[in-house]
Amino acid sequence: MDVFVIGQAVHMPAARIGEKRLEELVFDTAHAALADAGVRRGQIDHVTIAGCDELDGRSISSMLLAAPAGAQLRDEMKCTDSGLTGLCLEAMRLESGIFELGLLVSWSKPSTAPLEDVMRMRCEPFYTRPIGLNMAITDALFAQAVGEKYGFDEFDADEAVLEAYRRADRNPRGIGHGVPAMEDIALSPYLAAPLRREHQAPITDGAVAMVLASAEWLKRNPNARALAQVAGIGWRNEQYDLGSDRLAGLTGFRATLDDALMMAGLKNAAGLDLLELESQTGFHELAFRAALNGNAPKDISTSGGAFAQNPYFCTGLVNAAEAVLQLSNNAGPIQIPRIKRAAAHGSHGFAQQGNVAVVLERV
Fold first, then answer.
1. Distance CA 292, CA 317 (A)
2. How confident is the model at residue 80 (pLDDT cuts 50, 70, 90)?
3. How many CB atoms lie within 10 A of CB 343?
4. C-alpha closest to that of 319 among 236, 206, 198
5. Quick check: helix, strand or coil at residue 336?
6. How far apart are CA 35 and CA 204, in angstroms?
């Protein structure tokens, strides 16, 4: 694809960003991305926003957030699946030849609209009402299914969580949770067996913005710098069913990654130097790694992934931003030497019903 990231910004995460309204959070992040790219808002010809009305705690949130995101008097399109899906949409808009310079903005402030309250509300009117379904229960069903298929248990999940926190602790862009003691993870209360509270990545507030340009725009603006090139995109949505075949098959994850890798001209994930996974629990980390069937890159989730920061709706886009930093040699103390290709993964929905992947290359 002739689509390039020329600037980006990730808002400093926090468990609760209380000093800013959501509009201010979005504005500051979009403004910082434009500054990083060295372009003015007047130069962009379109804006892609990625946000969720329910997680924003307001109806048709784009009515209030499109302008802070830079979309005033600009062509605007909204994606409601996930921030990383928004990157796929933005790449397609540029690849169409209709647009040349765009701004992608995504945000999530779960401290305003608690995630589990939203997820429970999504289920309650129409699906398995007697069970009282929520995100923790579906993740526990996922953990049971993949554990049985791939042969790991909650003690393996304890180790995966501890290692994720260790990686996150080295990332200066993380929230700085610190590395918990193993017993604090292993003895934390069950939410739904076998999922314990400390198996979950802590939820944070945050926002991400990227400025993307076409090859034609870059030719006319030789002073602009490309940080990374979008080489492949892919996404899949699976059915609502929560049976073991859907949960343990990881069909959506595999197909999504395969689609993105194929577009990038790669046979499998072993052709990557880095894969940033969205692993919302330790069980997810283990399952996604197992699903790679031994074709994994050397480095996986170097940033710490969701255990570094986890603004739930846009965590996958944070992964893409970390990949861009690696490919442009701006990742700081966690920089991978001589990296050429990286992929970002994101997921959304109950038990990862939706998966998204984007492959990026060094320019």
1. 21
2. very high
3. 29
4. 206
5. coil
6. 25
Res 77 pLDDT > 90: yes
Q: What is the number of residues in the chain?
A: 363
The answer to whether residue 316 scores a pLDDT higher than 90 is yes
147: in domain:
no
Model pLDDT, residue 329: 98
Residue 41 lies in a domain: yes
Number of separate domains in the chain: 1
Task: Indicate the range of 10-14, 56-60, 277-281, 284-288 predicted with least confidence.
Answer: 56-60
DSSP 131: G
**Tokens 């003015």 sit at which residue?**
40
Q: What tokens does 108 get?
A: 């999530």
Four-CA torsion 300, 301, 303, 304, nearest 10 degrees: -130
The domain in which residue 84 lies consists of 3-113+204-220
Give the amino acid at 363: V
**How many Cβ atoms sit within 10 Å of the Cβ of residue 74?**
17
Question: Strand 195-196 vs strand 101-108: parallel, antiparallel, or unpaired?
Answer: unpaired
Are the CB atoms for 118 and 108 separated by under 8 Å?
Answer: no
Checking DSSP bridges between strand 101-108 and strand 46-50, what pairing results, if any? Answer: parallel
What is the pLDDT, as a whole number, of residue 65? 95
Both structure tokens of 146: 């993949």
Residue 237 lies in a domain: no
CATH number of the domain where residue 36 is located: 3.40.47.10
How much is the mean pLDDT over the chain? 95
Buried b (16+ CB within 10 A) or exposed e, 129-148: eeeebbbbbbbbbbbbbbbe
User: Does any domain span residue 300?
Assistant: no
pTM: 0.96
236: tokens are 């899949």
Q: What is the mean pLDDT of residues 260-289?
A: 98
Quote the DSSP letter at residue 202.
P
